[in-house]
Request: fold
Amino acid sequence: MRFHPVPDYHMHTPRCHHASGTVREFAEAALAAGMFEIGMSDHSPMPNGFMDDWRMNPAELHGYLTEVEQVRDALAGKLTVRVGLEADFRPGSEAGVARMIALYDWDYVIGSVHYIDDWDFDNPARLAHWDEVGIEEVYCAYFDLVAQSAATGMFDIIGHPDLIKKFGHRPPEGSARVLEAEEAMLQAVKQAGCALEISSAGLRKPVGEIYPHPRIVKRAADLGIPFAYGSDAHGPDAVAHGMDACLELLEASNVHEVCAFADRKRTMQPIRRV
Reply:
């Protein structure tokens, strides 16, 4: 099944130290795919005490903005390029992240959880820690953090909402504790008025599955939570990856439109088949 392209709002530059390609190369890949709108959203700097080696340094933020703005202006009329950011939620960092977000008039900000305490659970180098934890407890802790991230009001999109499954670790089927944590997370997203990202990145990871799980997509749809699509591209070759599969999953849950953003204002665009 094929769909008319929708905006892809999740893309990274080499400033995060695990991506490749210039912003112009991402934009050219989008044009080649017949797209009309994309957004760059590299990993933001974090306050002192919360920095790591897979995000841009504070000194790189100006260069990031300059590069995206130059491509945006050069391709005006051919491709809409939005200026976004992916900012981590880690308890204790909120004030510093809020100050950093306030530095620029973003088109949108993605809020993501990559850490449970000091464990970057999606880092392959930290994979062994999974053997030391209870999977149900980890899932519940993760969804609680996602709920907290939504409640801050700092973010427009909640990124890859069940990233915790990246390496294929699964709680027992039908775990009441995990289902309750999922529901509390979705209620927090609904209350905050955020969009939920439907991400194809999981298709390229060991879990081999779209983020979030179809169960979460269906429940979010029932709650009226809007969705934004993101490929989480770390190179031009991944721009729009898995878009059709994501849109098909949305349609199967009776979702027929996706988010677009400008100046942190959300509009809705119809999903159309071609």
About this structure: DSSP finds seven helices and eight strands in the chain.
